[in-house]
Specification:
It contains nine helices and five strands, in the order E-H-E-H-H-H-H-E-E-H-H-H-E-H. With 201 residues, it is an alpha/beta fold.
Length: 201
């Protein structure tokens, strides 16, 4: 089983390409955002720590963490955000390692994909067998985000400013999928890479 990290800037099309991969290959896909949600559920590793740090004001009536309230509480407070990240990130990594271990033991899939914008920054290079960079240039990404998510130009610029440069992504990623054109063109690049991967022993 090959473990592949999928990363790239906001609006690069990671979700659309992963949907294609999930429908065409014998694989498992784990999104870091979903893993982060799972570790915050009641009874899971981060729940008690986060409620102790941020108070019960961040909870829904049913006791689950309200993502919006939590975001509002840590927004513009860098020290608090750093404390929250120090709770969530190690737990997410542990969950991902655990899932990889389970799938390796089962031996029933060929590829395990981990997706996150911050895979490189959060130290996943030593967990994955190879890293893929989904590339699209800034103007293409901006157009997508304006139309599909309704983000303002200011919001898009502020998110892009916090992400790695194209040079940094390329430096750490073995494979670059160019997603500037049509999805069909990107699918062709993915097929080529994964079919090569299936030939490897």
């Amino acid at each position: 089983m090959k473990v592949i990290g999928i990363t790239g800037g906001v609006g690069s099309g990671k979700s659309a390409l992963l949907a294609y991969i999930g429908g065409h290959y014998n694989c498992k896909i784990l999104l870091a955002d979903e893993a982060a949600h799972r570790v915050k559920e009641p009874g899971k590793p981060c729940y008690e720590k986060l409620t102790a740090l941020l108070s019960k004001e961040i909870l829904h009536k049913d006791g689950t963490i309200d993502k919006g309230r939590m975001a509002a509480k840590i927004f513009s407070d860098e020290k608090l955000l750093a404390k929250v990240n120090a709770i969530i990130h190690p737990a997410v990594k542990e969950l991902i390692l655990d899932e990889i271990g389970k799938e390796k033991e089962k031996g029933s899939i060929r590829f395990f994909f981990v997706e996150a914008a911050l895979l490189i920054e959060d130290g996943y290079l030593d967990i994955v067998d190879e890293m893929w960079y989904i590339y699209a240039d800034k103007e293409v990404r901006k157009k997508r985000l304006l139309s599909s998510r309704g983000y303002s130009e200011e919001k898009i610029d502020s998110i892009m400013a916090t992400q790695l440069s194209e040079e940094e992504f390329r430096k750490y990623c073995k494979v670059v999928i160019d997603n500037n054109g049509s999805l069909l063109e990107a699918y062709g690049q993915i097929d080529q890479e994964l079919e090569e991967g299936m030939k490897e022993k």
